[in-house]
Amino acid sequence: MASKDENENQDAPRLSEKASLEGRESFVELRDSESASHTRSRMRDDALKAKLENPLARLTHEQLLADAAEFARTHDLGEYTETIQKGALLAQDPTAFETLPMLDEEDRRVLRREFTHKWDHPKTLYYLVIMCSVAAAVQGMDESVINGANLFFPAQFGIQPTPGSGASRETWLIGLVNGAPSLCCAILGCWLTEPLNRWLGRRGTIFVAGVFSFATCIWQGVTNSWQHLLVARFFLGFGLGPKTTTVPIYSAECAPPLIRGALVMMFQTWTAFGIMFGYVVNFAFRNVPDPAGIRGLNWRLMLGSAGIPALIIVAQVYFCPESPRWYMMKGRYIKAFESLRLLRHTDVQAARDLYYIHVLLEEERRFSKNTQNKFLELFTVPRNRRATLASSILMFMQQFCGINAIAYYSSNIFVQSGFSQTAALLASFGFGAVNFVFAGPAIWTIDTFGRRNLLLVSFPLMAVMLLMTGFAFWIPESSPAHVGIIALGIYLFTAAYSPGEGPVPLTYAAEAFPLYVRDLGMSLATSVTYFFTFIIALTVPALLGAWTPQGVFAWFAAWNIFGFLAALLFVPETKALSLEELDQVFSVPTRTHAMYQLKAAGHNLRKYVLQQKLGELPPLYEHEGAIGEKTYVSGGAQAA
């Protein structure tokens, strides 16, 4: 991948004027080493990047006001012409609101408040967040209710593994039943996202997904064989896939950049809540007796209960506004403006965001108007390829960090370590509670500390905790420390996962792709995570039988070391930038980004660990020093 990026070789990162001479020389050498045959390609990429920077920056105020008036006239927004003009001036330079004569003092007060009170937004936006959170809870419950059901349905359906049988046929069948929804999501469900969103919009897709989730959860509860349960769980993927893909996109497209990460990551936070609540349901139904004519009512109620929050989504979703970006893709600008007015405090803010999104979409359309195959452009266009690479790494690692081995099989793992069934369900609830509680810090840090830094802290901690858990299985079972340290290791691993690799992948994938391929990019990213969720669900029972828990936990610990290195080299930071301005971040070639991060890692080791007196490295991006201090980058509008 890196060599391909080098050949495409878009522009090298722009260095600030204050960059050190050493830093400048290193990048000059990199550029000078390029083959002359690649110069033409680089010039085309430079031109594309220039287009994707704020196109309004080169216009005079007179030209801008005239263009805004024409935009209002041609899109049936004539009654808002003056408001659109104010918004256009703000879109050109959002930090200049104090000096723009068209704005009154009330406009300035509201715009100041965007900086000083970043969580102050209309109730409609937070209602939308609640709906998305309930959608996430459905996801979590579907993962955890099968965890408790695993203790009961295999024996009823004749696929209970014999203790000490290793990787038997029964262990593979249990894994297949558990992983069936993920398999459906990976090969079908996630790929329905693009046509469903195109035809029905974000809300319509979420509605259809909610209906499927409810129906298939009830279906699972009335199955009469493992084959029947396998089919029902496979069809559950038609509800999970489009919902998982669409909800983060919907959140990202409606939220302002300063809190976009926090709002999008609510999906993972409330997925964690759903996992925790699913364990509560498992514990509550564990001893439900079978009435006449029904066998296994306890696990049937567990699986069916996940359909209840899906009904809440179905009832709630159409009270939320549609994504303004989706309306604009359809040319329905009046509806887009109405949606933004519900999601922002004032018409001026809505007009600013509407106009800036419009301008950038027009630039993007000119770039992509000859597109023949958008899916191929996820790999052939360098900017898209880098987003695909980074998102796929994070989605892959969300599974191979080991979390779903615990989410699906914690009850089995606890039983194998010496817990009773009741104690195992309680311990699994503890896992879910830790997962939910420790997702909270990411809400406050994902847009300040950053997506990338959360990952770089999370991966090493997860590796250490998994090794601790695996080694604890060698403690004699007669010792009270045996089960105590196993449970503690799992809880500490979960605490490290929840603010990092838990919320970041979906947030990252939802914002990394440009709008014209965003649905396909998100479909690809979520299909990757669901495919490897299926692999985890399918193989972990067999691995526990063949390798013992010690080997399984060591295996996932090793993958976390890989995840740390991959995130360091191939995952750029995306915090505090508008969705469209991320084009500039992903314009940096993969090889250049990786080389810079290796150099920065060595520099930071010497400076902060060895306490050597070193100067600052030149920033990789021109805006890098301003992230967290400035709301806007390269003239981009906040909510674009």
Q: Tell me the domain tally.
A: 3
Rg calculated over all Cα atoms? 26 Å
Total DSSP E strands: 0
CATH classification, class level of the largest domain = Mainly Alpha
Query: Can you tell me the CATH architecture of the largest domain?
Result: Up-down Bundle
Catalytic activity: myo-inositol(out) + H(+)(out) = myo-inositol(in) + H(+)(in)
Subcellular location: Membrane
Family: Belongs to the major facilitator superfamily. Sugar transporter (TC 2.A.1.1) family.
GO cellular component, one term: membrane
Notes on the protein architecture:
The protein has 640 residues and is mostly helical. The chain has three domains: 64-116, no CATH class; 123-570, MFS general substrate transporter like domains (Growth Hormone, Chain: A, Up-down Bundle), CATH 1.20.1250.20; 588-626, no CATH class. Helices cover 71% and strands 0% of the residues. It contains 29 helices and no strands. The protein has helices spanning 2-8, 21-32, 39-52, 61-74, 81-92, 105-116, 123-149, 153-156, 169-189, 193-220, 226-254, 257-264, 266-285, 297-305, 307-316, 324-329, 333-343, 347-368, 374-380, 382-400, 403-416, 421-437, 440-445, 451-472, 480-497, 504-512, 518-570, 582-585, 590-609. Helix 24 packs across helix 27 and helix 26 (504-512) packs across helix 27. The longest helix is centred in the C-terminal third of the chain and has 53 residues, at 518-570. It is globular and about 80 Å long. The protein starts with a helix and ends in a 31-residue tail after the last helix. Residues 1-52 and 625-640 have low confidence and may be disordered.
